[in-house]
Amino acid sequence: MAAKSEVLFQRQIYDEALDLCRKCSRIHPKDLDIIKRTAAIYYQTEKYDRAIKECDHMARLAPERQDAGLLKAMCYEKKEDWYHAAQVLKKIKDSPRAAAMLRKARGKYTLDYKMMDWVSPWFRDERREYYSVAGKASKSAMISANGKVQFQGDFTKLGQRSTGKSLYPANTGNLWCFVDGAGKRRLVPGEKYEFLGPQNGNLALVKQGGFFGYVDSHFNKANFGYEEAYNYCNGRALVQKHGLYLMVEEHGKVVKQCSFHSIRSDGYGNAVRYGVMIAEKDGKQQLYNSNATLLNDFSADELRFPEETHGLMAFRQGDRWGYVSRYGQVIIAPAFEDARSFSQGYAAVKLNGKWGYIGTDGKLLIPCSFDDAQAVSPKGTSWVKNGAGYQLLKLSIYPK
Question: Which long-range contacts (CB under 8 A, 24 or more apart) does 207-213 make?
């Protein structure tokens, strides 16, 4: 019967082949060839859920066999369930076919047409939740990594969440203040600032009269008069005074004098992201840790902050971009017109004037077809732009 069922299967007479397979399985319930043929018949007749159950049965009997996983992943592909397809394929090692199927799954996405004029990078608060600020005309919104609008309003600028407090620096008509998680004003200073950062360690970064400094929760000046200054991180902040960069504690006490000539910020007032600082010395940018200690000897014409802990960072030498590790090892040689740092195994790159996404092997996962593309969040979302504005790209290998 087994041989006859195979002949019928090859001749695509699936009903009779399935009937013989069922009879064989009652006699030999652990015959892997019969189970596999049954699964293949269900696959060919588009009964994918039944095929998946047969694949699971085969996997329980012979965990080492890859064909069960491959067929199961093919069923999920047909169902366009890229999340479960990817979960199956990740478990199949040393299989070129599985690797090719996984690459295909990783390149699938949908678009949520937010139509924003501008967006900011994702930031992580102390609760390890991720947000981005996006805006259209004079309105801004705080949007979570899964695309949910936390609050929105007539803000020209919004900053990241204060440490331990649901307070966000916001600019409304050239007036900086703090708003809560519903977008309502909660703390309004009695004087105008040119910039206001989040409250970190009870101190908030401000700019006034062309100088930087810090204010407490009542907007009393704690220390002031810096040419440059950045948000506090773990009780310390980087400032510049009389042309020198200094590391100071919360009361302004200098704990270290730095030797670099300029520093990069992430746009939210942070000089440190994921424990990494980027500073320039003698015309080259280098990587430092949060205590302003040089991480390695690697230098580049330009470096970009990491988007996750130990994530590969984009760097530029000449007019091309590549990727380097935190330890100064070049992982992907410069080959791109522009690039963002890696997150979640994806990095946005620019080729022939358009943006797409590569994997850590440097090969394209999503073709370069966007006018702009930002980093991928831990929720599998990213901002991409076409002629209509910014949309939220949602990778299909992430759960809905």
Answer: 212/239
Q: Are 376 and 360 in contact (CB under 8 A)?
A: no
CA distance 228 to 109: 41
Neighbours of 182 (CB within 10 A): 10
- Dist. CA 177–CA 159, nearest whole Å: 10
Q: How many CB atoms lie within 10 A of CB 243?
A: 7
Q: What is the pLDDT, as a whole number, of residue 179? A: 95
Pairwise CA distance, residues 130 & 44, whole Å: 43
H-helix or E-strand spanning residue 302:
strand 302-303
Could you list the beta-strand ranges (E) of 242-290.
244-249, 254-257, 262-263, 276-281, 284-289
Work out the angle at residue 345's Cα, subtended by the Cα atoms of residues 370 and 384, and round it to the nearest 5 degrees.
Answer: 20
Where on the phi/psi map is residue 15: left (φ > 0), alpha (ψ -120 to 50), or beta? alpha
- Percent of the chain, pLDDT > 90? 77
Q: What is the pLDDT, as a whole number, of residue 5? A: 59
Burial of 337 (0-12, 13-18, 19+ CB in 10 A): middle
Count Cβ atoms below 10 Å from residue 302 Cβ, excluding itself: 14
| Contact call for residues 335 and 302 (beta carbons, < 8 A) | no
Q: What are the residue ranges in the chain where pLDDT is below 70?
A: 1-9, 11, 13-14, 18, 20-21
Nearest-angstrom CA–CA distance, 88 and 102: 9
- Look up residue 250 and give its two tokens: 């919360």
SS3 readout for 332-367: EEEEECEECCCECCEEEEEECCEEEEECCCCCEEEE
Pairing mode of beta strands 130-136, 236-241: unpaired
